[in-house]
Amino acid sequence: MTDETGPWLVVGLGNPGREYAGNRHNVGFMVAELLAVRLGGRFGRYKRVVADVAEGRIGFGGPKLVLLKPQTYMNLSGGPVAALAQFHKIPAERVIAVHDELDIPYGQVRVKLGGGEGGHNGLRSMSKSLGTKDYVRVRFGIGRPPGRQDPADFVLSDFGTAERKELEFLVDRAADVVESVVTKGVEPTQNAYHGV
Fold first, then answer.
1. Residues 66, 148: Cα–Cα separation, whole Å
2. Any idea which residues carry the catalytic annotation?
3. pLDDT, tens only, 114-136
4. Residues 6+ positions from 164 with CB-CB distance below 8 Å
5. Binding site for tRNA, residues?
6. Exposure of 174 by Cβ count < 10 A (0-12 exposed, 13-18 middle, 19+ buried)?
């Protein structure tokens, strides 16, 4: 079991603005929003950082989560993350980034601690601002773009019709994965979810 005394910072990565809301790149926001509902929290603009923040606990008296949706654009996500982690005295190993992942097939959710950023600008910004890559990533597979579509255009396009039929269920599972990391740890979560 993980230490339950300190809070966890869960970062949903995405871009602010209605025009980006349904983008593949914004799936981190979708998962953070569902977690807020589960915890009975509500996102509000945070005075100290350019971000929307919600707080709550998993279950009655369980671990506290600070949920963060940076309201900078993706490539500047790290500033709000580092500022909030510092304010709440949350070490990097208790920071969880939820993000889209091109190198994983659509619908699969994978967890890892540390590693590279795989060209993801939100992760690159977080690593730079936190001064480490040793934070947890919950990677939501969106698959590779079809044909010769530019990956940058693909991530900034909305989920397709067929994908949207499963999206609610998959976002729900990704939220389960985040809660599992917090309550059980990275390795037990990998064992439980990586075969799914």
1. 39
2. 25
3. 998 888 999 999 999 999 999 99
4. none
5. 20, 73, 75, 121
6. buried
Please tell me the distance from the alpha carbon of residue 5 to that of residue 194, in angstroms, as a whole number: 28
The domains of the chain are located at: 8-194
* pTM (whole model) above 0.90: yes
Annotated binding residues? 20, 73, 75, 121
Q: Is the pLDDT of residue 195 over 80?
A: no
Which residue has tokens 């064992």? 191
For residue 39, pLDDT beyond 90 = yes
Average pLDDT over residues 34-42: 95
Rounded Cα distance between 139 and 93, Å, is 16
Question: What torsion do the CA atoms of 143, 147, 152, 155 make, to the nearest 10 degrees?
Answer: -40
Identify the CATH number of the domain defined by range 8-194.
Answer: 3.40.50.1470
